[in-house]
Write a structure and sequence with these properties.
mainly alpha; F1FO ATP Synthase
Length: 153
Amino acid sequence: MHSLIIGFMSLLILGLIGIGAAMEFSPSFRNGSYRTWFKPALITNLVLFVGAMIALGILGGPDAMAAAAAAEVPSFVQHQATAGMGLELIGVAVPTAVATVGAGLAVGQIGSASLAVVAEKPEMFGRTLIYLGLAEGIAIYGLVMSILLLGKL
């Protein structure tokens, strides 16, 4: 049952990729002829995908987590990779990933504004470097949080 739901979700993702590719490369999409069917098709695809994720969570999630927790691991196999450990590592990586994306957006905006200011007033160069450093600090905070979370594993 689980493989059927995962296969269904994979087909939905491939459908979204196919729609995106068709919109990019087909000339009929450029003149706007897709507007009558695109929005309902996208909403249907999204609803089916979310429904399949919920069904997988209800049907398969608790079993997979219970099996990993119930398995008694001998002391010589302490570092064997399990699904729970993989999820823990993904949870550790999330703060760094989100903070890095946020820092990239901030540095992009501040960097372009800094170039404009320095082009007109070169004496503002030091201040703009401080602002860029503050924006880059966001990524470092995310990295520190990931290191602290990694110490808790």
